[in-house]
Amino acid sequence: MLRIEGLTKTYKTGDKALSEVSFEVPKGQVVGLIGPSGAGKSTLIRCINRLVEPTSGTVHLNDLNVTGLRAGELRRARRRIGMIFQEYALVERLTVMENVLSGRLGYVGFWRSFMRRYPGSDIANAFRLLDRVGLVSHADKRADALSGGQRQRVGIARALAQDPELLLIDEPTASLDPKTSRQIMRLIMEICRERGLPAIINIHDVVLAQQFTDRIIGLQAGRVVFDGPPSGLTETVLTQIYGEEDWTAMRNGAAEDAEAEAEEKAQAEKMLRAL
Amino acid sequence: MSTAYPTTWRKPPQMIQSRGLRVALAVGALIYLVLAIGTIEVNWTRVVAGMERGQRFVAGFLQPDFTTRWRDISNGLMESLTMTFTSTVVGVLISVPIGVGAARNVAPVWVYYICRSIIATSRALQEIIVAIFFVALFGFGAFAGFLTLTFATIGFIGKLLAEDIEDIDEAQAEAIRATGASWLQLINYAIQPQVMPRLIGLSLYRLDINFRESAVIGIVGAGGIGAALNTSLSRYEYSSAGAILLIIIAIVMASEYSSGYLRKWVK
Amino acid sequence: MSVVSAETPVWAHRTPRKRLLLWAGWLACVALFVWCWERMTQRTIWAFVWDAPTAAADIGSRAFPPRWSYMERLWAPLWDTINIATLGTLLGIMMAVPLAFLAASNTTPSRLILRPVALFVIVATRSINSLIWALLLVSILGPGILAGILAIALRSIGFIGKLLYEAIEETDISQVEAITATGASQGQILTYGIVPQVLPSFYGISVFRWDINIRESAILGLVGAGGIGAQLNSSLNMLAWPQVTLIILVILGTVVVSEWISAKVRHAII
Fold this sequence. Notes:
A: alpha/beta, Rossmann fold, 41% helix, globular
């Protein structure tokens, strides 16, 4: 179970992306996170595995306080949190199998991963996951040879290879067509059900969120403005979340998105710089 | 859940599929390496004697002497810089029509072949070899160097410009053609705006290369700072040589930074 | 709604100020060119220049036909030339790869000390032509192909290092992020997130440099660093023009073949 308390993120420019966000996700629940671009959805899920460093507040995964961890412990925590990305973020030039196995990186040592000598159980598990997402025959293909929907399936298999206790899913359908989007959402839901896995799905498409998730959290300008069952999403609530043709807010949103991106980049760079 | 999944997986070969060919290539490479390394003859007594010179060179590089040979250095530098600039300007001016002529989408076939062969000749001949001939024909000094660098610039800019023109957005050219424009108008309105920023970038890059080359062709007598460098090295005056090398590095660095800014400004 | 002005607006390609600046810029360029030309030709003896066509005709008549029998003395230097280029490229790669990771802003372990040092080494080795390196190394190590190999290697460091560190800096950050999110260590992020992305450009750069090095190693012999250039030098000194013609033909042939190989390999990679 995931518990978030008073999570706040202020960017260097002084813009508040998240203010005092608190909620809990019990085991097996799939939460849809909706809100206009720049409401802080992307920042929120990245604060949970600390790809973006929160300014204040805590994140508890089961009994582990993720926000208080040092580098080595944080890596061990990250392997318990699977993440699925908007543009798939597969390592394009590696094979599908290597991409799935890369979910095990947190569990194997450097040389094992460098020589691609994973334990037999990891490999069997990777084949099982590829079978589950329907791609077992593509195992030896390179990731950039697959279609968008297939790549996202590999992304799902990679996240599952981590044996996660929580899934963070960032706009899984943003670059897919409507039919593939539904297939991917259905697959994610089935897998969460099978494993009793809690998940947070950051999603643009309100209809899709309503159709598939158990619970909706609406974010507006970094604050939770709605938290309830999908059926509770009425016209008035949606207006509250998205505003009524409030175009200036949208523009600010785009700026905030760019900021989040820059922050992420800086974070990743910082990690790399320490290499 | 009864299917048993394999517990081993090997990465399939990415480039060469046939196993025999892979082994043959690896063995071949190994044999080549052994043979090639075997041809290196090292005269160790000479190397040991040379180490002392090596140390003096490093010392000279760390404590460069700009003053003793300043007259030679400044003369050579002036020659190198003027030669670089003039040859780049003339080279670019000549290479523009040749580059246009070597672009298949705008030039008639016979012009295309003539221009392509000019470019191929210029690119295939090493600057140094060209410099040797120009020195033999035009006498020692900067003029031979100027001709060498101009000749090399034509091949470099001509080829890249031609490729650039061949890569342009055809829709724009078609739109201009549809207005009933003449060939020159087509070049001016559809081609020039598309390739101009890159042509400027290439010219700046070539300026940089020409300066570096101007330091080399002096060795065979084509003027410039290379002659001064050659003299100081053959006299074992390593502190002067170090000074010259440092000047070359500094100028290349400066030109690289400024051309980066210029290119951004042009865009 | 905009207010329509009473007069018909005059359309001009550029504003007067811009036009003035443009003309001033052109004028400055022309002035600089004239001045440079004057400085450069100060010591030119024009008699030689006007005499050049006759000299060219003279050399041309003596250079043909090439002396084909000289070929048997060229095989060994040609083999040396290829070895200088290949071994020099390999040595250069070995030194350039770690340097590139130190110099790339996203992988460098220390931004303040190691990165500037690595960048300086890259610029310094790149600014100095391999012939100058050869000149220097021959004066230190004595003539021979070792000096040639080292000269080629040193020049290659700067070239490969620069292109490779730029490729490392251009890697897609989302792939790196995804690998980070799995809990990978920093070594694993490097080998899974970055290396696969830069590997194709690495192969391309190396083969490209090898192709250039073949050209460069052909002339290193002029200053005593081994290879076919030594034969060229002695033939030039003896004014044996038919031999010179043959050597240049051989160099051209080698260059064409190496360019063809490099183009094939790069095509196969991409």
